[in-house]
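Just scan this pair:

***
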Amino acid sequence: MSVVLYPPSQDVAENYQIMRRALRENLGVEKNMLAILSNASAILNYYLEDINWVGFYLAQGDDLVLGPFQGKPACPRLPHGQGVCMASYLPAKMINVPDVEMFPGHIACDGDTRSEIVYPIRIDGEVIGVLDIDSPIVNRFTSVDETGLSACVRVIQAILGRE
């Protein structure tokens, strides 16, 4: 299987359609979670503009532990109940933080990060971790990004859920 990437579009909504196609085609029939999440983070990093980190944190006990990612080195473990990722993971909902400096308890893994969006990742209804995306730009993630990334997460979840 070879990797296929399509040219990104200047239109943000169209770019998310291209990302979903690239995720489906490149994650293909792979069943290994590490391989799927590694290529998913690379694909998202390739297509998303104005981000400085994209990756996954996976549940381990009460904490979230660093998984596959693209970007600077990151916090290896996020403690239970702290930070933006936990604010998404615990209630199992997407969270979009326009300015992380205004978020109580934000964990600053990269001091350049100014905004963050996080999605819970589910397999068979169980939240197994989160997709975390950071940007050095305040208010980077719009409603178009929320919708587009939500659709990308559904593709990733569907591939992870295959037996």
Observations:
- Helices lie at 12-27, 33-47, 83-89, 143-160.
